[in-house]
Amino acid sequence: MWCIFAPSLTDYRGYVLNNNQLSRIAGAPRWLFVLSVALVMSMAGALGIVHAAKSQLNNANRVIVTSSVLSPPTDGVENYLLVGSDSRASASPDDPDYAVVGSEAASPGMRSDTMIVVSYNTKNSTVATMSIPRDLWVRIGDTDSHNKINAAYHKGADVLIRSVQRALNIPIHHYIDVNFSGFKKIVDAIGGVHICVAHASRDKATGFYIGKKACKLQTGEQALRYARSRHFEEKIDGSWHEDATGDVGRGARQRAFIAALVKDAAKYLIKHPLRTHTVMDSMTSAISVDQNLDLLDLAHKLRPLGTGTSKSYALPVDSDMNNGTFVFRLNRDSQSVLAYFAGLSAAAPEK
To answer: Whole-model pTM?
Structure first.
């Protein structure tokens, strides 16, 4: 059963969840925005181009408050918490997608639209990713107050990190954050990304639309509409059909998009090496990281994400209701996955 007390930052190993009361359901990654940053840097590192822009990468905004809560080095594993922020603070009424993204007044504050743990195995240089659903019910920070994990981000990056460590009993060594506007800048900086659809596709809520089977170059604005799609429809035999798989289908589309992003970034940087400065500028202006993170080192370690050799996990959870609110709770199948991300076991079966 789940422990009812909070382990310290270094004793997460003894408290991996095992809840026998709940059954397993499928989940899907929600990590597109911030992972896009890591993938572009990774590909640039593989090409040897990013070395010329190291000074630019070092100019990324540093989140000082994370220093007190990040875990000390762990034997065999190094975990990065990647967060995609849905802050509208930088949204401009002049943006074509302003009506879709929304304003700071309408959606104030900071929330984490996307959360994923990227784990680097320091012994064999392999990489694994694990998505964290934003509706996961957890204790917030160092308090005994419970809420959805998405609410922890609103209280600060340090509170979010501590909430993740307590809920999952895994170490978090580094932190990276990117926002909506930053995502668009990164895509635009590499000249756009080709999105491929098998049928005419749309999402009336976000404004995404491709009118026929195609691989079409999309701008940052268009790519964001695709990435945020939760009501994805395809036109089959003359009729529109919404994807019935929900977040599972959304995750599959995001993974396909990431592969396209890496491919297009590589092509762009090879063709336009003198524009590396612009690409690096878009990244450093879009992201915030912990004080000690070496972005060049990160690019080197995360290369498997761009080659298709990394492992991908959806955190095993069950749906539940808490005082009339929909939430997710960890289930017993999460034990093996979390043990793997804590560096305590061999790779668990991918979910």
So the answer is: 0.73
Please state, rounded to an integer, the average pLDDT across all residues of the chain.
Answer: 78
Residue 173 buriedness (CB in 10 A; 0-12 / 13-18 / 19+): buried
Domains present along the chain, CATH in parentheses: 30-187+269-341 (3.30.420.590)
Dist. CA 218–CA 225, nearest whole Å: 10
Residue whose C-alpha is closest to residue 13's, from 350, 317, 329, 338: 338
Instruction: Enter the tokens of residue 145.
Output: 């107050």
For residue 233, how many other CB atoms are within 10 A of its CB?
19
Please state, in angstroms and as integers, the Cα–Cα distance from residue 6 to each residue in 75, 89, 138, 264, 345, following that order: 22, 34, 11, 44, 22
Specify the 3-state DSSP secondary structure of 164: helix
Contact 57, 298 (CB under 8 A): no
Q: How confident is the model at residue 28 (pLDDT cuts 50, 70, 90)?
A: very low
CB-based contacts of 254, cutoff 8 Å, min separation 6 = 29, 30, 31, 32, 227
For 51-88, the pLDDT digits (tens) are: 555 666 677 899 999 999 999 999 999 999 988 776 54
Could you give the CA distance from residue 250 to residue 233 in angstroms, rounded to a whole number?
A: 11
pLDDT digits (tens, 9 = 90+) for 8-27: 444 443 434 444 333 333 33
**Three-state secondary structure readout of 1-64:** CCCCCCCCCCCHHHHCCCCCCCCCECCCCCCHHHHHHHHHHHHHHHHCCHHHHHHHHCCCEEEH
Strand partners, 81: 117, 175
How many CA within 13 A on the CB side of residue 200? 10
pLDDT at 166 over 90: yes
